[in-house]
Request: fold
Amino acid sequence: MKNERVNAIVEDLVDVIRGVMLKHSVTNDEFKQAIEFLEGASRETFELQLMLRNFFEITTAVAANQEHEGSAANIAGPFYLEGAPEIANGEHIKVLEESNGEEVTIRGHVKGTDGKPIEGVKLDVWHSTPVGTYSGVHPGIPADHYRAKLTTDAAGYYEVKTTKPVPYQIPHDGHTGQLLTMMGRHSWRPAHVHFKAHGEGLVEHITQVYFEGEDYVDSDCCDAVIDELVLPTAQVNGENVITKDFVLDPA
Ligand code: MBD
Ligand code: FE
Reply:
Protein backbone atom coordinates (compact mmCIF):
# COMPACT_ATOMS: atom_id res chain seq x y z
CA MET A 1 0.00 0.00 0.00
CA LYS A 2 1.31 3.45 -0.89
CA ASN A 3 2.54 5.49 2.07
CA GLU A 4 2.41 9.19 1.19
CA ARG A 5 4.99 10.27 3.74
CA VAL A 6 7.49 7.57 2.77
CA ASN A 7 6.95 8.49 -0.87
CA ALA A 8 7.42 12.21 -0.27
CA ILE A 9 10.60 11.77 1.76
CA VAL A 10 12.22 9.12 -0.42
CA GLU A 11 11.47 11.01 -3.64
CA ASP A 12 13.19 14.10 -2.20
CA LEU A 13 16.07 12.00 -0.88
CA VAL A 14 16.62 10.37 -4.26
CA ASP A 15 16.54 13.80 -5.96
CA VAL A 16 19.12 15.21 -3.56
CA ILE A 17 21.47 12.23 -3.84
CA ARG A 18 21.20 12.19 -7.64
CA GLY A 19 22.06 15.90 -7.62
CA VAL A 20 25.16 15.27 -5.50
CA MET A 21 26.26 12.41 -7.76
CA LEU A 22 25.91 14.62 -10.84
CA LYS A 23 27.65 17.57 -9.19
CA HIS A 24 30.68 15.39 -8.46
CA SER A 25 30.42 13.16 -11.55
CA VAL A 26 30.45 10.07 -9.36
CA THR A 27 31.80 7.17 -11.42
CA ASN A 28 30.38 3.67 -11.51
CA ASP A 29 33.51 2.45 -9.76
CA GLU A 30 33.03 4.96 -6.93
CA PHE A 31 29.37 3.97 -6.75
CA LYS A 32 30.46 0.34 -6.35
CA GLN A 33 32.90 1.33 -3.58
CA ALA A 34 30.11 3.18 -1.79
CA ILE A 35 27.87 0.10 -1.97
CA GLU A 36 30.66 -2.10 -0.59
CA PHE A 37 31.37 0.43 2.18
CA LEU A 38 27.73 0.54 3.29
CA GLU A 39 27.34 -3.24 3.00
CA GLY A 40 30.45 -3.60 5.18
CA ALA A 41 29.04 -1.21 7.76
CA SER A 42 25.70 -3.02 7.82
CA ARG A 43 27.46 -6.32 8.58
CA GLU A 44 28.77 -4.81 11.83
CA THR A 45 26.41 -4.65 14.80
CA PHE A 46 26.64 -0.96 15.44
CA GLU A 47 28.28 0.86 12.55
CA LEU A 48 25.32 1.89 10.46
CA GLN A 49 23.51 3.21 13.53
CA LEU A 50 26.58 5.12 14.63
CA MET A 51 27.16 6.58 11.15
CA LEU A 52 23.54 7.68 10.71
CA ARG A 53 23.35 9.18 14.19
CA ASN A 54 26.68 10.93 13.72
CA PHE A 55 25.60 12.68 10.53
CA PHE A 56 21.82 13.00 10.77
CA GLU A 57 20.34 12.57 14.24
CA ILE A 58 20.77 16.26 15.09
CA THR A 59 18.35 17.14 12.32
CA THR A 60 15.49 15.41 14.17
CA ALA A 61 16.18 17.67 17.15
CA VAL A 62 16.41 20.80 15.01
CA ALA A 63 13.11 19.84 13.35
CA ALA A 64 11.47 19.22 16.75
CA ASN A 65 12.79 22.53 18.06
CA GLN A 66 11.15 24.32 15.13
CA GLU A 67 7.76 22.91 16.06
CA HIS A 68 7.94 23.07 19.83
CA GLU A 69 7.89 26.02 22.17
CA GLY A 70 9.82 24.37 25.00
CA SER A 71 13.55 24.25 25.73
CA ALA A 72 15.90 22.89 23.07
CA ALA A 73 15.86 19.18 22.34
CA ASN A 74 19.06 17.43 21.32
CA ILE A 75 20.19 14.02 20.10
CA ALA A 76 19.74 10.88 22.19
CA GLY A 77 22.79 9.05 20.90
CA PRO A 78 22.87 5.26 20.94
CA PHE A 79 23.44 4.61 24.66
CA TYR A 80 20.19 5.32 26.54
CA LEU A 81 19.09 2.33 28.64
CA GLU A 82 15.73 1.72 30.30
CA GLY A 83 15.62 0.95 34.00
CA ALA A 84 18.17 3.35 35.45
CA PRO A 85 18.18 3.35 39.28
CA GLU A 86 15.82 5.88 40.89
CA ILE A 87 17.62 8.35 43.12
CA ALA A 88 16.39 11.15 45.39
CA ASN A 89 16.89 14.82 44.63
CA GLY A 90 20.40 15.91 45.59
CA GLU A 91 21.87 12.41 45.53
CA HIS A 92 25.06 11.46 43.72
CA ILE A 93 24.84 9.24 40.65
CA LYS A 94 26.57 5.94 41.31
CA VAL A 95 30.07 6.06 39.82
CA LEU A 96 33.07 3.75 39.98
CA GLU A 97 35.42 4.44 42.87
CA GLU A 98 38.32 5.16 40.54
CA SER A 99 36.23 7.99 39.02
CA ASN A 100 38.23 10.68 40.74
CA GLY A 101 37.30 13.39 38.24
CA GLU A 102 35.84 16.81 38.95
CA GLU A 103 32.48 16.92 40.70
CA VAL A 104 29.49 18.76 39.33
CA THR A 105 25.97 19.47 40.56
CA ILE A 106 23.29 19.88 37.91
CA ARG A 107 20.02 21.37 39.06
CA GLY A 108 17.07 23.39 37.92
CA HIS A 109 13.35 23.56 37.41
CA VAL A 110 11.01 21.79 35.05
CA LYS A 111 8.16 23.97 33.83
CA GLY A 112 5.40 23.86 31.28
CA THR A 113 5.13 26.29 28.38
CA ASP A 114 2.72 28.22 30.66
CA GLY A 115 5.63 28.83 33.07
CA LYS A 116 4.13 26.69 35.84
CA PRO A 117 6.41 24.18 37.61
CA ILE A 118 5.65 20.52 36.92
CA GLU A 119 5.83 18.00 39.74
CA GLY A 120 6.47 14.31 39.16
CA VAL A 121 8.41 14.59 35.92
CA LYS A 122 10.77 11.62 35.53
CA LEU A 123 14.20 12.80 34.52
CA ASP A 124 16.65 10.24 33.18
CA VAL A 125 20.28 11.33 33.34
CA TRP A 126 23.15 9.44 31.74
CA HIS A 127 26.73 10.18 30.73
CA SER A 128 30.05 8.53 30.02
CA THR A 129 32.69 7.47 32.50
CA PRO A 130 35.80 9.64 32.86
CA VAL A 131 37.48 7.36 30.28
CA GLY A 132 34.75 7.83 27.73
CA THR A 133 32.76 4.61 27.95
CA TYR A 134 29.07 4.03 28.70
CA SER A 135 27.86 1.71 31.46
CA GLY A 136 25.88 -1.35 30.44
CA VAL A 137 27.24 -0.95 26.90
CA HIS A 138 31.01 -1.13 27.14
CA PRO A 139 32.45 -3.99 29.19
CA GLY A 140 33.28 -3.68 32.88
CA ILE A 141 30.84 -0.98 34.01
CA PRO A 142 27.54 -2.20 35.51
CA ALA A 143 24.47 -0.56 33.96
CA ASP A 144 23.37 1.01 37.26
CA HIS A 145 26.43 3.29 37.22
CA TYR A 146 26.54 6.68 35.46
CA ARG A 147 22.77 6.54 35.00
CA ALA A 148 19.92 7.65 37.23
CA LYS A 149 16.26 8.57 37.25
CA LEU A 150 15.06 11.56 39.31
CA THR A 151 11.60 12.92 39.98
CA THR A 152 10.82 16.64 40.20
CA ASP A 153 9.35 17.90 43.47
CA ALA A 154 6.28 20.14 43.97
CA ALA A 155 8.32 23.17 42.85
CA GLY A 156 9.37 21.34 39.68
CA TYR A 157 12.89 21.22 41.14
CA TYR A 158 15.52 18.55 40.56
CA GLU A 159 19.14 18.25 41.61
CA VAL A 160 21.74 15.63 40.77
CA LYS A 161 25.40 15.34 41.67
CA THR A 162 27.88 13.42 39.57
CA THR A 163 31.44 13.08 38.40
CA LYS A 164 31.82 15.43 35.48
CA PRO A 165 32.26 13.68 32.13
CA VAL A 166 35.17 14.52 29.84
CA PRO A 167 35.27 14.75 26.03
CA TYR A 168 34.06 11.56 24.44
CA GLN A 169 35.50 9.86 21.36
CA ILE A 170 32.77 7.99 19.54
CA PRO A 171 33.63 4.41 18.57
CA HIS A 172 36.09 5.13 15.74
CA ASP A 173 37.70 1.80 14.86
CA GLY A 174 35.06 1.00 12.23
CA HIS A 175 33.47 2.47 9.14
CA THR A 176 32.27 5.68 10.82
CA GLY A 177 35.76 6.46 12.09
CA GLN A 178 37.24 5.60 8.69
CA LEU A 179 34.83 7.94 6.93
CA LEU A 180 35.51 10.80 9.36
CA THR A 181 39.27 10.29 8.88
CA MET A 182 38.87 10.38 5.07
CA MET A 183 36.94 13.64 5.53
CA GLY A 184 39.78 15.10 7.62
CA ARG A 185 37.54 15.22 10.66
CA HIS A 186 38.04 13.94 14.20
CA SER A 187 35.67 11.65 16.08
CA TRP A 188 35.30 13.58 19.35
CA ARG A 189 32.24 14.94 21.08
CA PRO A 190 32.54 17.62 23.77
CA ALA A 191 31.87 16.44 27.32
CA HIS A 192 28.11 16.09 27.65
CA VAL A 193 25.34 14.85 29.91
CA HIS A 194 22.22 13.29 28.41
CA PHE A 195 18.69 13.90 29.72
CA LYS A 196 15.30 12.42 28.94
CA ALA A 197 12.28 14.01 30.60
CA HIS A 198 8.90 12.36 30.57
CA GLY A 199 5.68 13.10 32.35
CA GLU A 200 1.97 12.64 31.88
CA GLY A 201 0.50 14.82 29.16
CA LEU A 202 3.91 16.07 28.05
CA VAL A 203 5.97 15.59 24.91
CA GLU A 204 8.91 13.35 25.78
CA HIS A 205 11.96 15.58 25.81
CA ILE A 206 15.46 14.35 25.00
CA THR A 207 18.38 16.72 25.31
CA GLN A 208 21.98 17.21 26.43
CA VAL A 209 24.02 19.69 28.41
CA TYR A 210 27.48 20.88 27.31
CA PHE A 211 30.07 22.77 29.36
CA GLU A 212 30.94 26.31 28.27
CA GLY A 213 34.53 26.87 27.19
CA GLU A 214 35.49 23.22 26.96
CA ASP A 215 37.16 21.21 24.20
CA TYR A 216 35.20 20.28 21.08
CA VAL A 217 32.19 22.45 21.97
CA ASP A 218 32.85 24.18 18.63
CA SER A 219 33.74 21.04 16.65
CA ASP A 220 31.47 18.20 17.81
CA CYS A 221 31.81 15.29 15.35
CA CYS A 222 28.02 14.92 15.55
CA ASP A 223 27.41 18.67 14.92
CA ALA A 224 24.90 18.48 17.77
CA VAL A 225 25.89 21.42 19.98
CA ILE A 226 23.11 24.00 20.25
CA ASP A 227 24.06 27.33 21.89
CA GLU A 228 21.19 27.21 24.38
CA LEU A 229 22.57 23.92 25.76
CA VAL A 230 26.13 25.15 26.38
CA LEU A 231 26.01 26.16 30.03
CA PRO A 232 28.37 28.01 32.36
CA THR A 233 29.59 26.43 35.57
CA ALA A 234 29.10 28.57 38.68
CA GLN A 235 31.01 28.19 41.94
CA VAL A 236 28.46 27.98 44.75
CA ASN A 237 29.74 27.20 48.26
CA GLY A 238 32.75 25.43 46.76
CA GLU A 239 30.63 23.33 44.42
CA ASN A 240 30.60 23.37 40.61
CA VAL A 241 26.99 24.09 39.78
CA ILE A 242 25.26 23.96 36.42
CA THR A 243 21.72 25.28 36.24
CA LYS A 244 19.64 23.61 33.56
CA ASP A 245 15.93 24.39 33.37
CA PHE A 246 13.56 22.44 31.20
CA VAL A 247 10.45 23.79 29.49
CA LEU A 248 8.26 20.92 28.32
CA ASP A 249 5.60 21.09 25.66
CA PRO A 250 2.12 19.68 26.23
CA ALA A 251 1.49 16.49 24.27
C1 MBD B 1 27.46 9.21 22.20
O1 MBD B 1 27.66 9.23 23.52
C2 MBD B 1 26.67 10.15 21.69
O2 MBD B 1 26.13 11.04 22.54
C3 MBD B 1 26.43 10.18 20.32
C4 MBD B 1 25.56 11.21 19.73
C5 MBD B 1 27.01 9.25 19.47
C6 MBD B 1 27.81 8.30 20.00
C7 MBD B 1 28.05 8.26 21.35
FE1 FE C 1 26.76 10.56 24.65
